Amino acid sequence: MDYSQLEKLVPKDKFDFEPFPALMEINEDEVKPILPKLLFWVADMNWPIATEMIKVLVRFSDSVVPFIKEILGPAETDEEWKYFILSDLIPRLSTTSQELLLESVKRIYVSPTNGETQSNVWEMAKEYIENLYCDTNDITELPNNPGYGSESY
What we know:
- The structure is a single chain.
- This protein is an all-alpha fold and about 150 residues long.
- The chain has a single domain, classed as Alpha Horseshoe (Serine Threonine Protein Phosphatase 5, Tetratricopeptide repeat).
- It has ten helices and no strands.
- α6 packs parallel to α8 (about 95-110) and α8 (about 95-110) crosses α10 (about 120-135).
- It is globular.
């Protein structure tokens, strides 16, 4: 499939459900060039196509990891996108993909940006880690978030 055909599989707007049947059939090698554009559609889980896009992205767990790492990095300032990646996408990815993303999630927990602290991204990272480990005491060297006083975790 050439790139112009692939571009047709990227939704044009938040109401564009037309590409989804083809997206559910495409193989992992073919989809790689458009994965960043597909990830855009989970920046707001209130968009009508967001839930369907999660289903597509989960099919490509391993290939989507590098792009998620970039989104979760401190340079990205779209905190809502980070929040939805943490709350809605990462928990549905394969175990291997989740393990590859754990350092990025821990970075948000241990050393959040001001935006991540103020927008509840830090709390979503904390919740994800707690769910993963069942007890944050099992995690070594995860200090209190500087924006949240002297609570113990």
